[in-house]
Design a protein that fits this description.
- The structure is a homodimer of 297-residue chains.
- Chain A is an alpha/beta fold and 297 residues long.
- Chain A has 2 domains: 5-116, Nucleotidyltransferase, domain 5 (2-Layer Sandwich), CATH 3.30.420; 161-277, Nucleotidyltransferase, domain 5.
- Chain A is 38% helix and 25% strand.
- In chain A, the strands form 3 sheets. The first copy, chain A, has a 6-stranded mixed beta sheet, with helices on both faces. The first copy, chain A, has a 5-stranded mixed beta sheet with strand order 12-11-10-13-14, sandwiched between helices.
- The interface between A and B is large, with 45 and 46 residues.
């Protein structure tokens, strides 16, 4: 097993790592030791727990995500847009006790006005650009905090974050609506939710409660309620992100099932989408940074 | 201590009771044994724990709220609007082991389309009407699930529920925004939140995340972030409830501090408000039911 370098995607809840050979990943691992559960001095051990068995000598480690937050391993200051999504010169080196590790963290991006931040998605955008050189247009990265990103001439021009995924998690499992939810799915209910939120986004706080009332009064099935909730929140995001997607083709970068929902919702608005695998984009983005580092040596 | 009857406001989280004399409440008590924590056979004991010491002989008990839900003490089926807010003939009698208790539960209201329900607020609306006989217009009952109610000729014509209070609780204490919140208040931040949500309600999921980003990038104080969050969510409610308040005077029925926020937000839209005390309305509503019961004997 020959490893040239190690790619790390280190978010709030999880750590994922790949041992990279010349042709791509040759080994992968992960743990639930995300940034949110670690103190600064605990990161190195958490990393070694996953990648330690892969190490035969010194190896570059390139990491992105919340690991670079103020509460992370070491803060990697945001780079302000407009700028390229990543910059090898801005990588932040982290000293380690284990001499085999040569760790660098990619900083996130910030936008002054409207105030916004990302950590991790910038590397996916960079990866998408390296997979589609010369791309100019709009990317959408659905998730807990969905990002809409305008890319032009190799730079991130502007972006906007929507709390869609977190709202869905809170409402479906912590609010009064949890009594009305069940597993399963209903495409028609999802489509109806998208349509009503896009048509009347200002009514969202009332339409949310209607899911509970429809369950009580009209026996709305839990699977349909869950799908409609998802549709309403994605529809609300699309209503707010309209300046991004209107008249554009959109590249979706995200988990497959979630990207498929966004593709479906956008198709109903006559918007063409292409879905890129999120992990492939992360690895391509970190890979480009690694190439640049090698080139600089 | 002469008690003619007992008024009970029994919600999901709390039980409040008042021993009522000819001139109003003479004793009051309560507990945290709300509907949400009780099985049907536990309600009588929970009630006696509070009102037991007041009992010298048989006494009518009139209760409203979630105690009449399907998961409550005994289900009191919704009455469908348009209808009077309460109806003595629709009270649901609950058999008790203790012969001194003569318990009746007031049913809530339902609306077929858009599907909506209320339990407890109908009694406040009835109370407001008995305090302001002949009132015709719009009432707003801010809270966990805010209600907007159109009243005409003594009947509830239509109503709409907004999940505003629950969204505030979830977002301020369970979401990523909790890191950006602190106690305290900032009127200007509240006003700005109201204005931006009213102007662009479709952007709400993005504007919510901006509170986090403003904290990280521009050191937005936690008290201002909390006030702006409150303003955004109340502004979103006002955006959706516009057909209710536009060109109307609004009667607010709710807790004093929360009602004051709604009054402030509505005043910025040139809407006049009058605030009624929520407890006074509950007692007046239950009191009218008690009078009707007495009259029927």
């Amino acid at each position: 097993m020959a490893i040239d370098w190690i790619a790390v995607d280190w978010g709030t809840s999880n750590l994922r790592a790949w041992g990279m050979g010349p042709g791509g990943p040759v080994v992968q691992g992960g743990s639930d030791r995300g940034m949110g559960s670690l103190k600064p001095h605990e990161f190195e051990a958490a990393l070694l727990q996953v990648v330690g068995p892969w190490l035969t000598g010194p190896v570059p480690v390139l990491a992105c995500g919340m690991v670079g937050a103020r509460q992370g391993w070491r803060e990697a200051n945001y780079r302000a847009v407009p700028c390229t999504p990543t910059d090898p010169a801005a990588l932040v080196r982290v000293p380690t006790a284990d001499a085999r590790l040569d760790v660098r963290i990619a900083p996130g991006l910030s936008q002054d006005k409207p105030a916004d931040v990302m950590r991790g998605e910038e590397t996916q955008v960079a990866g998408a650009l390296s997979l589609h050189p010369g791309f100019d247009g709009v990317m959408c990265l659905p998730g807990t905090h969905s990002k809409w990103v305008r890319v032009s001439a190799g730079e991130v021009v502007s972006f906007q974050t929507f709390m869609t995924g977190e709202l869905f998690a809170l409402l479906s499992s912590q609010s009064v609506l949890r009594h009305s939810m069940a597993e399963g799915w209903d495409d028609d209910a999802f489509d109806a939710g998208v349509a009503e939120a896009l048509a009347r986004p200002e009514r969202i706080a009332a339409r949310l409660f209607s899911l509970r009332a429809e369950g009580l009064l009209h026996a709305l099935p839990g699977s349909a309620a869950r799908a409609r909730l998802s549709g309403m929140l994605i529809g609300l995001e699309l209503a707010g992100a309209k300046p991004y997607w209107l008249g554009q083709a959109v590249k979706l970068i995200g988990a497959q099932a979630l990207s498929a929902l966004y593709a479906r919702a956008l198709a109903a608005q006559a918007v063409m989408t292409e879905t890129l695998d999120a992990t492939a984009c992360t690895l391509a983005g970190l890979g480009r940074l690694h190439l640049n580092l090698k080139g600089a040596k």
